[in-house]
Amino acid sequence: MSALLQNAGLPPGLLDQTRILVTTEELFGLWRGIGQASTNPAIGLELGTETKREHFDPIALAALSTASFGEAMRQMASYKQLSCPEEIIHQTDGDEWSIHFRWLLANDAEPEVLTDLCFAWVLCIARHGTGTRISPLRVELVRPRAYAKTLERHFGCPIAFGAARNAIVFRSSDVDLPFVTRNAELLSMLAPQLDEELKHHKGQETFPERVRAIIQRKLAGQRPRMQDIARELHISSRTLQRHLQDEGYSFQQVLEQARHQLARHYLNNSLLELNETAYLLGYEDANSFVRAFRSWEGVPPAHWREAQREKVMV
Fold it and tell me: Which segment of the chain is annotated as a signal peptide (predicted)?
């Protein structure tokens, strides 16, 4: 274990601490090291699957205590930020319900073993909660084809390699699947404590960080207006602008920061074309996005993406 931590650039006694704090880069390094050290290419699937509910953490137990699969995912999406610098994004589009993880503070693409773990964890919650062998419609992976049969057996569905994103896709009707593990009494005990921790966590965020997070949730083919964000915060546009100015920011600056973070995420963790990325970031065309990205990173997005891939392969 000490050799693994050393290779990841982490102190030898890190795991001996009561509370372990690492950056996203260090977390990725640790999981990348686990993947490289293991002789099992599907180690992430094993680590993301738990057979005994008594081994679940409070967040997972709270999710299992809810009424349905969809409610459980909403619960986890809310509370997950207490333990990891990630967002759980779930979206319904027609007959499909997709779930993916977004690491906004990441400089590199997420390790494959971590992707496997996250999706195995979602499936584990679904199967424990519904009491069935529910399987997704498919799992989409950016990576090239590898240990496909193992992945297909575990998830019970086709695996789409070389996809534009990492996502686990269920039927939209699965949102309403009832949980046999529903426990209102346990949820009433866990939720207030988690809500209090979440309130404290959000209280540590600066106002610009809260605004940026809301912008990122609304950046999906359109550019959020100041009044849209103000409405989400239950304040006026003028109040929003004043609070940002008090912190030394303008709304445009925070919007650009939000786009910059998301741009790095899309380029690192998907095969989206530049025009598709530009659309998701609310730009009118790819050229506008390229100009903005060059101003952030000093190089065009295609060159930056290639450099990141080469870095991971070293």
Answer: none
Q: What is the pLDDT of residues 21-72, one digit of tens each?
A: 667 777 888 888 888 888 898 999 999 998 877 678 888 888 999 999 999 9
274: Cβ–Cβ under 8 A, 6 or more apart, which residues?
A: 286, 289, 290, 301, 302
Q: How many helices (H) does the chain have, and how many strands (E)?
A: 15, 5
Q: Which pLDDT belongs to residue 58? A: 81
Q: How confident is the model at residue 181 (pLDDT cuts 50, 70, 90)?
A: very high
167 and 74, same structural domain? Answer: yes
Domain count, the chain: 3
- pTM score of the predicted model: 0.71
Q: Which of 185, 219, 251 is the last residue of a domain?
A: 185
Domain that holds residue 261: 205-313
Residue 141 falls within a domain, yes or no? yes
Tell me if 190 is assigned to some domain: no
- Give the DSSP H/E element, type plus range, for residue 262: helix 251-269
DSSP alpha helices (H): ranges in 85-183?
112-130, 148-155
| Together in a domain, 29 and 71 | no
pLDDT at 194: 73
CA–CA separation, 95 vs 134, rounded Å? Answer: 16
Q: The tokens 């459980």 sit on which residue?
A: 72
Same-domain pairing of 303 and 264: yes
